[in-house]
Amino acid sequence: MTMEITRRSLLNGILASTASMTLSPTVFSMVGPGPSIIRLSSNENPYGPSSKALKAAAKASAKGAYYPGRIAAELMQMIADKNKLEINQIAISSGSNEALSAAVVGWGKSGKIISPSLTYDLHLGYAQRIGTKVLRVPLDNDMSIDLDAMHAAVDKSVSMIYLCNPNNPTGKTIDGDTLRNFCRVVGKKVTVLVDEAYNELTDNPEYTSMVDLIREGENVIVMRTFSKLYGMAGMRIGYAMGREDLITKVRNHVMAWPNIVGLAAAHACYNENDFIKFSLNKINQGRALVNKVFIEHGIKPLPSETNFVFADIGRNVKNFEIKMRQENVLVHREYSLYPNHLRVSMGKMEDLQIFADAFKKVYTS
Ligand SMILES: Cc1ncc(COP(=O)(O)O)c(C=O)c1O
User: 195 to each of 103, 165, 211, 222, 362, how far by Cα in Å?
Assistant: First the structure.
């Protein structure tokens, strides 16, 4: 691991100094978070990309004159093999948000989309703006996704249920078999779109995932991303898995192509087990630190199996977030349905220490 870290820091150093030769400091500061900004607001993973992914990206960028070529099919085959699916059951997209948008727009043409009232919803907002109807079902009292209420809301006017497991921003996970039963029953009526952006970070990813239902031919689509575990949010690679007919429909509604650099990086790190272990370990360490900060201030965070933590801080997040920003620490802005709940994403351990100090200062002032 030390060797790996040393090699990674070395490579990062080389790439950073090459970048600084070709990008002026002013332009470089426009890439990602600005200088001295601790960004804990977007559920990114600053421990990625892996050094292998970075090397692959640098090499592939030399062929940036060309459209991607066979690399996309190769990556799809790797994803299919790992998940015991066929290649025609996989679609790669420019971040999973693109495949999510394609799915809700595609299904939205023949009916409403049901979603939890508090969840990841960029794609839902996009679909609504172009005419899709979205019905939002409140969470239950302990902030879990209310599967019974979602099921009860299904009628002939509905074409799809979207849910996210674990959910963003709560971080809570629906039990694997509970969701499996739900998908089997509800899938007889409408397609269930399960967003597994954080699945690989859960305690038991295989049990929590609905990929096995795809192998059984159920009416389920699973979305995954390279943005979280693999730390490649800026490289924009995500993918959809599902029955061939469902995946064809998703593909038919996708607008943006994945790029050559992201594809090469994803291909390089998809099965890189050492990096995956390292990344998971860092995320877990970070989460323990953020949980500790909350608990030290008498705040009870929700149990999270993700790279973020959600907690009722007992005061309005709107002002709190502004004050944290003044300390150069970005946390998520207020959620209108839950104005006292704060979401904090993982960062590097040293950044989380700065968060801890800023939190103490702002919370106790
Ligand atoms: C639940 C969920 N799904 C999808 C996405 C989008 O990820 P991507 O970067 O793959 O577009 C996010 C991003 O935060 C997310 O939280």
Answer: 11, 6, 11, 6, 34
